[in-house]
Amino acid sequence: MHGDPMMWVAGVRALYLQALHPLAVRAVMQNSDFRRDAWGRLMRTANFVGTTTYGTTEAAERAGARVRRIHAMLSATDPATGRAYAIDAPDLLLWVHCAEIDSYLHVLRRSGYPLTDVQADRYLAEHRASARLVGLDPAEVPTNRAEMAAYFTEVRPRLAAGADARAVDDFLLRPPTHPLLVPARELLWRRVAQLAYASLPPYAHELYGRPAPAPAAVTRRLRATGAVLRGIPARLRWQLPPKHILRAMARLGPGARPAPYKVGR
């Protein structure tokens, strides 16, 4: 699944969703330089996901330890109360994890990736490993679609689109770029961001206050985009950094090549 090109749209959807938790997004705003180093932050996230997906066990454990070490040193201040809090609090880590994994699963399935309900539950259960790596207790992490839906229902009253969330929204639609690249940003990136936003759940559209196309139209756009991107030869797509898939295939042999038809095995 993580070798599918629609993961890029799913990743942007995750950012939109994560920004709706006031304390989670405040932690990012106070401890991140994403506005000045958007590409660097994106690549660091992609590198972590790639390492935990395609790297060795040792590499994944090192990556997780590094994330936990950095998070343990950071804190943020609640804008509503002025209270300082640790950014590695379990409830915040759980929100970031669930918003991310739910987005991956939602976008890929909705865009036509062949995954049954049983396989979708297996995907969520397998991500208890990545949850543990960032410091969560796997027993507290949703392991199937029903548990994930119940989690979002429980956390929904705590979500809001405050100033920080709107700053993320504005950034995702218009990330800083070189003047010569502005046309490409408007033509390509803006479409990715708009599609990612459109794929959010209705309550997220309500919170952001910006309407989205009808769900059926969004599904058609996701499927069309998926068909186009999946038409690009995988070997060409995998040349993009950080090249985890190619390194894994070099280590494990050509039989390790990711392919949708292997999902049912």
Automatic annotation (TrEMBL):
Q: Which residues form the ER-bound oxygenase mpaB/mpaB'/Rubber oxygenase catalytic domain?
A: 2-230
Task: Please verify whether the record's keywords include Oxidoreductase.
Answer: yes
Entry keyword annotation includes Transcription: no
Q: Out of the domains of life, which is the source?
A: Bacteria
The main enzyme category here is oxidoreductase
Q: EC number(s) for this protein?
A: 1.-.-.-
Q: Which UniProt keyword terms apply here?
A: Oxidoreductase
Q: What is a GO molecular function of this protein?
A: oxidoreductase activity
Q: What protein name applies here?
A: Oxygenase MpaB family protein
